[in-house]
Amino acid sequence: MKWLLAILTILLLATQYRLWVGPGSLAEITRLKRQLAVQREKNAALEQENRQLFREVRSLKVGTDGIEARARYDLGLIKEGETLFIFLDTQETGQ
Known about the structure:
With 95 residues, the chain is mostly helical. Helix content is 76%, strand content 0%.
């Protein structure tokens, strides 16, 4: 009878070990849930960035307005007949 009780106790402890410490344990599941939440946040941010880039690409493909705006902003281009004015802040230049 003592041997049966000892064997059952060992089996109970062995099954509890996997529940609390081993692979698939509650601690591991909690850690994986946290990782999943972080990854979902990253994915949401990347999806937003992809949507913005898609809108920009579509704008550049459809008409010249997007290309013109991009050239003006990135390259500082002006149209023929326009006059470019550059205003310098004297506090920033140190004068």
